Amino acid sequence: MIEIENLSKRYGDNIVVDDVSFTVGDGEIVVVVGTSGAGKSTLLRMINRLVAPDAGRVLIDGQDTTTIPEDELRHRIGYVIQGYGLFPHRTVAQNIATVPRLLGWDKARIAARVEELLDLFQLDPGEFAQKFPHQLSGGQQQRVGVARALAAKPALLLMDEPFGALDPVIRGKAQDDLLAIQRRLGTTIVLVTHDMNEAFHLGDRIAVMDGARLLQYATPAQLLTHPAEAFVEQLVGTVERPFRLLSLVTVKDAMEPGSADGEPITVSATLRDALAQLIWRGRPALPVADASGAPIGRISVDGILKHGRPLA
Length: 312
Prior knowledge:
Belongs to the ABC transporter superfamily. One of its GO terms (molecular function) is ATP binding. This protein is 39% helix and 24% strand. The chain is an alpha/beta fold. The relative contact order is 0.12. A hairpin with a 2-residue loop joins strand 9 (205-210) and strand 10 (213-218). The protein is built from 14 helices and 13 strands. The longest helix has 18 residues, at 168-185. The model has no long low-confidence stretch (mean pLDDT 89). The protein is globular and about 60 Å long.
């Protein structure tokens, strides 16, 4: 559990973060969004004390971070920045091993952890362990950067625009990979982005900042249905709101009994994806299949619209 209490930061007369408070539950992904200069990155850096707050405090599992030695705190918190910050003259294995080595892990334990993480991130150890960052694609560098941040098994991972340098196709895959790994490891994540689509895709809760202030802290559905201020409503998008709502619900929730012709849609697909497939294929309904491919029902345009109306 992370408790952010009344954090403030100013540089001269410029207030960068203004009395921000919110709580992050264990195993949650919280995304901090807002326009450039809203204070997002400064807020993130105050959590691991890369920036010292002028007022307020951060508690991790009830412990004030100012009572934890800085080196110990930063070893306990993984940190990923845009560009990944990999050491160019160290191999992939050496980059991932950075924090465990500083913590005095023995060589066998470090080697096992490096191999475990490379496997987890689908980077074959035999192929990638001895490569250097310049020999990797952008997506591969991003995975190594996250692996390095997770090497010492931190309970908290901070990510500052981690996918900003990736092209849209690789970016979507990187986001899905992060979700899969987070669900497997249960790591608590606080992630900064300016991309609302990314926020809705990743966040259990979203903190909207503007002008150094926290305007709203809520679930994606709450932001869409009950934006607290005009700026929040503008940020989530008036036209896109119905489709973003549909992206938060899976086919399982709107599935109907019966059958339909055509290529099946998976039960885990979002209603937004299902509606897109129905429109693209020009069908009023399509079959739904479970993870094994077995048919278990159907999804229809009318069913999606009926299900969507209460959300709005």
